[in-house]
């Protein structure tokens, strides 16, 4: 697939998607949103891809939705644009392969929302985060008002959403918005190392952990742990479970096949 506003490279089973519109700080216009949708579908379908690393070219991860496109939108256009973006981001969140945002710079508005839709976030020490929509007289449209409180808690989310304040990587780590902060030069190597660790685990187990967390968080605890028990039982019938346990008892690394 030929992309114009992002790059898509596969190496060692990791698809690296680099948002590549640096002159506009990688702001998400409709065309870029369309390419992100194609890229995440491609990553999901390709059998040589086991994990996704998402990052940005230049000094931004993504500086938000493209304000130049939002300025003239009607109420109907705005709702449709939000729903479309939400569908694209939900694909990152529900991909049965791990998605990791390597946040290299500004992650504002839709950029922070895109990072939150990934399963994990690593931040460069120069990264900046925020939901500045209130400064523009709007609310987040790509899930920020819902994923932010789920990640950092209601009070901290309210603070960021109501002030539009930008926070640095250290503060993002302190409130639990990112998993780790690393020096800028180490961001991509650290992201690849983390995904390589996950790729060595049972792929069916990884996919079911992702699904259990994603679905379970919005259930009550009894339903959620029932879901967990069903996955625990299901994976007991897998070749990967037999291999993982046999390898442990044989004191050798497991060779998983994803079945
Ligand atoms: N939408 C459209 N264009 C954007 C953009 C966005 N969200 N964010 C940055 N850009 C563009 C700027 O308009 C500028 O384009 P130009 O060179 O053609 O004028 C270019 O990217 C560089 O941005 P600039 O503002 O000059 O860089 P800066 O270092 O002074 O400031 C930011 C960086 C991130 C603080 C600032 O660009 C900003 O506040 N962006 C908007 C963030 C936002 O509100 N996002 C939520 C949108 S819903």
CATH homology group of the largest domain: 2-enoyl-CoA Hydratase, Chain A, domain 1
What's the helix count?
11
Taken from the alpha-carbon principal axes, the silhouette is globular
The number of strands is: 10
The unique ligands bound to this protein are:
coenzyme A
Low-confidence stretches: none
Any idea what the CATH architecture of the largest domain is?
A: Alpha-Beta Complex
Rg over C-alpha atoms, rounded to the nearest angstrom: 19 Å
State the strand order across the main sheet.
1-2-3-5-7-10
**Proportion in β-strands:** 15-25%
The helix content is 40-55%
What can you tell me about this protein's structure?
- The chain is built from eleven helices and ten strands.
- The chain has 259 residues and is an alpha/beta fold.
- The strands form two sheets. It has a six-stranded mixed beta sheet, with helices on both faces. A four-stranded mixed beta sheet has the order 4-6-8-9.
- It is globular and about 60 Å long.
- The mean pLDDT is 98.
- It binds coenzyme A.
């Amino acid at each position: 697939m030929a992309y114009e506003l992002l790059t898509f490279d596969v190496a060692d089973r990791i698809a690296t998607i680099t948002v590549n519109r640096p002159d506009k700080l990688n702001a998400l216009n409709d065309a870029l949103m369309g390419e992100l949708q194609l890229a995440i579908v491609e990553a999901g379908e390709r059998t040589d891809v086991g994990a996704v690393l998402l990052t940005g070219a230049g000094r931004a991860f993504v500086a938000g939705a493209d304000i130049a496109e939002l300025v003239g939108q009607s109420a109907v256009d705005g709702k449709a644009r939000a729903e479309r973006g939400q569908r694209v981001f939900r694909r990152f969140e529900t991909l049965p392969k791990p998605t990791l945002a390597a946040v290299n710079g500004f992650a504002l508005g839709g950029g922070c929302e895109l990072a939150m839709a990934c399963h994990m976030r690593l931040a460069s020490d120069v990264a900046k985060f925020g939901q500045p929509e209130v400064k523009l007289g709007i609310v987040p449209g790509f899930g920020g008002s819902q994923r932010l409180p789920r990640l950092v808690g209601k009070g901290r989310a309210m603070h960021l959403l109501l002030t539009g304040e930008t926070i640095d990587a250290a503060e993002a780590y302190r409130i639990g918005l990112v998993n780790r902060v690393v020096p800028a030069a180490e961001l991509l190597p650290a992201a690849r190392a983390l995904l390589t660790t996950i790729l060595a685990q049972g792929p069916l187990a990884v996919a079911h952990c992702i699904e259990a967390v994603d679905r379970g968080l919005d259930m009550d605890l009894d339903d959620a742990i029932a879901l967990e028990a069903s996955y625990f039982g299901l994976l007991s019938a897998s070749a990967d479970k037999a291999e993982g346990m046999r390898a442990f008892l044989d004191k050798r690394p497991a060779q998983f096949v994803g079945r």
